[in-house]
């Protein structure tokens, strides 16, 4: 597919990875935000709703023809679609991962902080199996948590957005760890449930765009003084 020349000129070293996003409306909205922010590419892992499903197309409002979309990827192949030296960051808008690290409890909360904890049982069971077989206890990658508005675009960046039901996958955490990435924390007021995936993706992508614009302005200003 050929994309508009103006879109390619405004493309940024910023990618989006959708991890188990199953709601058509959310995915369409996310694609629209990705196109608006100037993402160079959107990767969809297996488990995501089909990007060309009618409800996704309707919510995308033409975004499918503004940004390259790669569908149905295995996590093993995702690095093949990332530019050299890309750092992978995992969206985190409630910060329970930090608590998980200090309590040594396996928590993969995704987007729902206080509910839907039943999805953790799978990883708890895997952990128990590993312990029985003598595998390492440190099966959950340790990722530093940083605020979403602290600079994270000094290198090409890819942001992982998890689905609201199942959250981010263990594979996404492992990829982030292997590339030197972190968790990006979007704080919410205590007692308020987390943002939905489309809202969180929009906040992070346009924050990335803001950081890249400021960096370009600073570079241009420095060059003018020489």
Which labels suit this protein?
about 230 residues, 7-stranded parallel beta sheet, globular, alpha/beta
Your description of this structure?
The chain is α/β, with parallel strands linked by helices. Helix content is 37%, strand content 17%. It has helices at 5-9, 24-37, 54-60, 96-103, 120-132, 170-178, 197-224; strands at residues 12-19, 39-45, 69-73, 87-92, 145-147, 157-162, 183-185. A seven-stranded parallel beta sheet has the order 3-2-1-6-4-7-5, with helices on both faces. The longest helix has 28 residues, at 197-224.
Give the rounded overall mean pLDDT: 81
Spatial gap, N to C terminus: 42 Å
Order of helices and strands: HEHEHEEHHEEHEH
Arrangement of strands in the largest sheet: 3-2-1-6-4-7-5
Shape, principal axes of CA atoms: globular
Number of helices: 7
Mind sketching the topology for me?
Layout: H1 5-9, E1 12-19, H2 24-37, E2 39-45, H3 54-60, E3 69-73, E4 87-92, H4 96-103, H5 120-132, E5 145-147, E6 157-162, H6 170-178, E7 183-185, H7 197-224
Helix pairs in contact: 2-3, 2-7
